Write the structure tokens for this entry.
Amino acid sequence: MLTLYGLQIMLNKDLLEQFRAYLLVEKNFSQYTAKAYTSDVMSFLIWLEDTDVSSVDYNKIREYLRFIYKYNYKKTTVARKISALRTFYKYLYRERVVEANPVAGVSAPKKTKSLPKFLDKEEIEQILNNVNIESPSGFRNRAILELLWATGMRISELSGLNFGDLNLEHNEIKVFGKGSKERIVLISERAKQYLERYIHTARRLVAKDFPPPPQEENSPVFINNTGYRLNPKTIRNVINSIVEKISLPKKVTPHMFRHSFATYLIENGADLRVVQELLGHASISNTQIYTHISTKHLTDTYNKAHPRA
């Protein structure tokens, strides 16, 4: 016989799956972010036990926060958990499951501001030049890293590219960023050449045991060895293997290519508004962090080079 608690678990499981679909389809969150948010909400639902999500109020949320603070999570983790719950109840409010969002008035802990890590031009070139392009998948990887460096795209955006997004005649690519926001990024001649060579020669050979995938408007540009869209995790693994191979003394992530792209533009006099547009930042304040990186980089260089520093 199904108990009230068991019924509540089933209902919560359905809600959670619907919420996950909402994050991926409507909010256009990355698989990584959707997974993290879903996991955070699931932890909350487990903590609730047999309490109905629709009966949760502000005090109940505060009680849960006191509970998770016992585990000494980092401020960024707590902030994400609060953001996940706020988004979850915002979704429930839209679906008329609740009458108000109990997390609306909850403030997240202030994050410790740190400058994004970036690679200098020489380190980027060292990584690019150590990609093995002798195999079709290796040439694909080189084209991917060239694009990340040339455009500042997120790997989720690059993974989501379709042939209909490419306008290589004008060195442009249409990108769908966070919140399904569309923008145009520009690509260098070098990146364009690698991309075109991948499309015309290597792409059909990546999935060698499967029929060549079509090059239609809604077909993925970058594919794996089974002919399906390439997962961002594969791109992370590619970068990790190269960094390990060349013993680069930095922990390198795909997002560092984005930081490096923005920093390089700012250091070379690019207008902040232009960089904001290319990165797809909703607010100029998100882009201004790269001016701080540039200033710090100049200061560090000065301190190392000047005899009186």
